[in-house]
Amino acid sequence: MTSETLRKIQSRVAILCQDKVVRTNIPCLTLYKSERKTDPVLFVYEPRIYIVVQGSKQVSLYDRIYDYNERQYLVSTVDLPVSGMITEASPDKPYLAACISFSPLEILEVIEACGTDAMPRPSSRSGMGLSALTNDLLDTVLRLLNCLASEQDVHFLAPLIKKEIIYRMLAGEQGKTLYDIANDRSDLSGINRAIAFLRQSFSENGDMTALPSLAGMSRSRFYKKFQQATNLTPLQYRLRLRMQEARRMLLHDAMSVAEIGFRVGYESPSQFNREYRKVFGLPPHADMKRIRTIGIDRYKDENEAIWR
């Protein structure tokens, strides 16, 4: 990896990102900055490439841990409920990151333009993976950032550079997974349909017998492929979505713990308390007491704002 290119990217992101999160004029590009480490925060990683250009970060997908910095990039190809925290940041050397979103259709367009001979190397079947950040990919990210200096470049060059970034990823270690997500008949696309249903209905208590059919698979194949893609069972996936929403409501909405538990799908307050403690280490009341000692607004600003 070329250190000079990385330094240029760090300088551009530091100038462009004057807040914790900046959504740029390039629709697919979001920039992040933090001057401090954060607590773990639950959120959903959507299909994106995540590049830390300074500092370091940890993302946990249940018991699978991804620690990365400016030497790697992380790709998420399906919606995944993760816990994330910034592990290296300071006022003198803030955490800086860039996020580039993509869709299955955009991947398919690049595949079709490349032709059938551009087959990717085998990869894991997970919906998330880390890869080494190459000079070619780093160079395209710098050129994408430089487009922000000109409206014409944003309009004309940025979409072309985004296609090149997808092309570089297809040629890398995540290539097979990207091919699969672009193929609406692949197992991964079927899992994505089931995930979309879970995200829409996570607070409902209906059974999950319709999920294999929705994914176009047998029951045994569905559960195997779901676990491979997400490192979770469907029930665990729903639990993570419920806990993410419950934590958000505790911090942002004036509701009792019992009412929040009911809103996210629990009829039993004791069950809600147990499952909340499993995820966050403390029951809801104790968790909120801890946060109030810090100050709710301060806690949200220091820990949540960077993930928006």
Question: What does this protein structure show overall?
Answer:
- The protein contains 13 helices and 10 strands.
- It has 308 residues and is of the alpha+beta class.
- The strands form 2 sheets. The protein has a 6-stranded antiparallel β-sheet with strand order 1-2-9-4-7-10. A 4-stranded antiparallel β-sheet has the order 3-8-5-6.
- A hairpin with a 5-residue loop joins strand 1 and strand 2.
- The protein is globular, with a radius of gyration of 20 Å.
- The model has no long low-confidence stretch (mean pLDDT 89).
Key words describing this protein structure:
six-stranded antiparallel β-sheet, alpha+beta, 308 residues, single chain, 19% strand, 10 strands, four-stranded antiparallel β-sheet
- Percentage of residues assigned to helices: 40-55%
Q: Sketch the topology as an H/E string, one letter per element.
A: HEEEEEEEEEHEHHHHHHHHHHH
Radius of gyration: 20 Å
What percentage of the residues does DSSP assign to strands (E)?
15-25%
Structural class: alpha+beta
Order of strands in the sheet with the most strands? 1-2-9-4-7-10
Q: Termini distance?
A: 29 Å
Name the quaternary structure. single chain
Name the overall outline: globular
Total helices: the number is: 13
Total beta-strand segments: 10
Uncertain residue segments: none
Mean pLDDT: 89
List the helices and strands and how they pair.
Blueprint: H1 3-16, E1 21-23, E2 29-34, E3 41-45, E4 48-54, E5 56-61, E6 64-68, E7 72-76, E8 80-88, E9 95-101, H2 104-114, E10 128-132, H3 135-146, H4 151-170, H5 175-182, H6 187-201, H7 211-215, H8 219-230, H9 234-252, H10 257-263, H11 269-280, H12 284-294, H13 296-304
